[in-house]
Structures are given as structure tokens and as C-alpha cells.
Amino acid sequence: MADEIDTLIRHRVDRLESTVQILVKWTDDDIPQSWEREDFIQKIDPQALYTYWEDLGGRKEVTGLRLYHIFKVKAKGWAKGEIRYHCQWVGYSPKDDRWEPEEKVVNYAPVALADWKVREAARRARVAARKAAAQADNQ
């Protein structure tokens, strides 16, 4: 496949945006090496990204970045009297997920939150369809 990663070669840090780009060697030799956004790599081959950072000693230690971007909102919950969202961070594996206050997610990751809402609506529709089918089968 054209979008399969062979090797993550090196990275560069944009300190103004607190983002990282990584130079990718693709499995298809006809595709030249290219600088790709870290979140894109995390979407297509998360394990390659996690291994890259682990081999270098950890993303935080290597990049020095202290501002994190939400990669994906995974769930909605309630704690300490407030709505919270379970978030995965760009460049970090699910073991580093954290619950964040609603206000923070709304303000800093509206696209990730909107994506979660679409996924959640689809999930709820599937559950409702299964329940309706099960009820129809029982009648």
C-alpha cells in the first residue's frame, strides 16, 4: 500500500505551535520520503509512532514540548460535579490517556470533540437498531 510506513527517520519540532513533523520513508520506493504531521502518522500507524518515541527515550523528553494536543476524544463521563472527556494525546499511546474537563476540551479541541460526537451518535444508532431487531425477533 502507498501509505504504509517503512521507517520513521527523524523529527522536527515547531515550538510556536507545539507540534512535531516526522520524516517518513514509505514502503513503496516510488514514493519519496516526506515530512508528515505527527497526528497523521498516529492515524495510519500508531504503533510505529509509539515505538519511535519509546526508542528515543520518550516524546516529552526528546521534544521538550509541554503543551499537548488532543488526538482523540474517547468517552464522556462525570466526576467531581463536572462533565469530563477521556482524551488521547497526539504522540502518546492510550496508556497515557487522561480525563479532561469539558471546558478545556471545548476550547482547545473542538474538532476532536465534534468527531467524538459523530462517532457516539453512530454508536447509539447501532445500539438502538440492535435493540429494535432483538425486540422484533422476540415477538
Task: Describe the global form.
Answer: globular
Architecture of the largest domain, according to CATH?
Beta Barrel
How far apart are the first and last residues' alpha carbons, in Å? 48 Å
Low-confidence stretches: none
- Number of H- or I-type helical stretches: 5
CATH class of the largest domain: Mainly Beta
Q: How many domains in all?
A: 2
The largest beta-sheet arranges its strands as: 1-2-3
Summarize the biggest pleated sheet. 3 strands, antiparallel
Structural class: alpha+beta
CATH fold topology of the largest domain: OB fold (Dihydrolipoamide Acetyltransferase, E2P)
GO biological process, one term: chromatin remodeling
Domain Chromo: 3-64, 65-128
Pfam families: Chromo
Protein name: Chromo domain-containing protein
What would you note in describing this structure?
With 139 residues, this protein is an alpha+beta fold. It folds into 2 domains: 5-63, OB fold (Dihydrolipoamide Acetyltransferase, E2P) (Beta Barrel), CATH 2.40.50; 70-138, OB fold (Dihydrolipoamide Acetyltransferase, E2P), CATH 2.40.50.40. It has 5 helices and 6 strands, in the order βββαααβββαα. The chain has helices at 38-44, 46-56, 59-63, 102-108, 110-138; strands at residues 5-14, 19-26, 34-37, 70-79, 82-89, 98-101. It has a 3-stranded antiparallel beta sheet, with helices on one face. A 3-stranded antiparallel beta sheet has the order 4-5-6. α1 crosses α2 (46-56). The chain is globular and about 60 Å long. The model has no long low-confidence stretch (mean pLDDT 95). This is Chromo domain-containing protein. Pfam families: Chromo (PF00385). Component of the NuA4 histone acetyltransferase complex. It comes from Gibberella intermedia (Bulb rot disease fungus). InterPro entries: Chromo-like_dom_sf (IPR016197), Chromo/chromo_shadow_dom (IPR000953), Chromo_domain (IPR023780).
